Amino acid sequence: MDGGIAPPPRRHDTAPRRIYLDNAATTWPKPESVWHAIDRYQRDNGASAGRGAYGHALEAQRVVMEARRGVARLLNAREPRRVVWAANCTDALNLAIHGYLRPGCHVVATENEHNSVLRPLRWWSDRCGVRVCFAPVDAAGFVRPSTLAGLLREDTRLVVVNHASNVTGALQPLAELAAVVAAHDRAALLVDAAQTLGQVPWELEADCRVMIAAAGHKSLLGPLGTGLLYIGPGLEDELLPTRQGGSGTDSERETPPDSLPERFEAGNLNVPALVGLIAGLDYIHQRGVPAIAAHHRELSNALRSGLSAIPGVRVLGPTTDLPSVGVVSCLIDGFDPHEMAAILDAEFGIETRAGLHCAPRIHGALGTRERGGAVRFSIGFATTSADIETTLDAVRAIAG
Predict the structure, then answer these.
(1) What top-level class would CATH report for the domain 19-23+289-399?
(2) Is it true that the peptide bond before 241 is cis, omega within 30 degrees of 0?
């Protein structure tokens, strides 16, 4: 299934066409509507949201609310006000972790977690006596619900689950894992949906003790500088703001507003980026998440099976019959991952990501940490079958 847009122009006359396969970091290109929407807002409006009663300021505020509604629709959430804007997914995860944890509590995370989770948890462990344990993954990168259940304790306050690994692409059984946490009745669930929201149909009930962090600049097709945290009912009373400042409301008080979402959104919002995010969300709703998921699944399965057939190539993570997103990582015998990525770029115009991908624990579990990680190919909405075939030809040439 092709992406339906014209390929990007050549970088220069002698270079191969640019094949961008680093969409797990940020999607590129964006739908044309995203670029046009940002440019139009910057040129024709430019006002802050929630900072005035004149027409353009009210229009900016409408933009902010429209973007909330678009995200809430993806999450099947009834209250858009529970969508809080952040600078990126890292910022959203920091709000959830630093705002919700308390000294001496217990946290369960998984081996799949990104440094956006690992580093805040380490901060709490080193300074506040928080005890953290990690649910292991199987050979394909999946966390078993029974394994997670065995790690929960009376004092477990938070369970963090990476919905899909940014290294293996393994798509976790989120509904089953959430049921384990719900049965505990004390812990809240924090889902890192950086690699999934907008790419796979959402399966989790939003009206429960859950927080969901996502990046607007990845599968939601918005620009950089956008992220969000969905806060489930009741959790806002236990979540402390991690930033304080102007909110445009309750200006006579020296404490943050009590209402959602203003309690957690100090300072001016990135309205130009949210305008672009609305255009990305519109594209997703028009094309349909099931169709987008099928596109990623078809191309990633073709890439995964093609790489697996090349002698000397080791593909990490799930096989093609297991749930995954459009992320495929591999190693080639005799090549350092960074060397391989450099050759792919210089000789074939294929842009990938090499290294540990800010996820050292999963590389440790897979035995790739000491080798410096792996090379990651990540598919986007505009990736084509021809891009995959060109990539496979390039890897065959390198491996040969």
Answers:
(1) alpha beta
(2) no
Q: Are domains 19-23+289-399 and 34-285 of this chain identical in fold?
A: no
Residue 66 CB burial class (10 angstroms; 0-12, 13-18, ≥19): middle
CA distance to 24, 123, 220, 344, 347, per residue, from 18 (Å): 17, 40, 22, 11, 11
pLDDT at 250: 63
Where is average pLDDT lowest: 88-92, 186-190, 254-258, 316-320?
254-258
Q: Show the DSSP H helices in the chain as ranges.
A: 32-44, 55-75, 89-100, 115-128, 145-151, 174-184, 271-287, 289-308, 337-348, 360-366, 385-399
Residue 387: which of 22, 12, 11 has the closest Cα?
Answer: 22
Judged by DSSP in three states, 370 sits in: coil
Residue 189, classified by CB atoms within 10 Å of its CB into exposed (0-12), middle (13-18) or buried (19+), is buried
Q: What is the DSSP string of 107-122?
A: EEEETT--HHHHHHHH
Q: How far is CA 185 from the centre of its chain?
A: 27
Tell me which of 3.40.640.10, 1.20.58.460, 3.30.110.70, 3.30.420.40 is the CATH number of domain 34-285: 3.40.640.10
Q: Where are the domains of the chain?
A: 19-23+289-399, 34-285
Centroid of chain to Cα 121: 18
At 243, which amino acid appears?
R
Contact predicate 97/239, CB 8 Å: no
Q: Is the pTM value of this prediction over 0.85?
A: yes
Q: Please report which confidence band the pLDDT of residue 9 belongs to, taking 50, 70 and 90 as the band edges.
A: very low
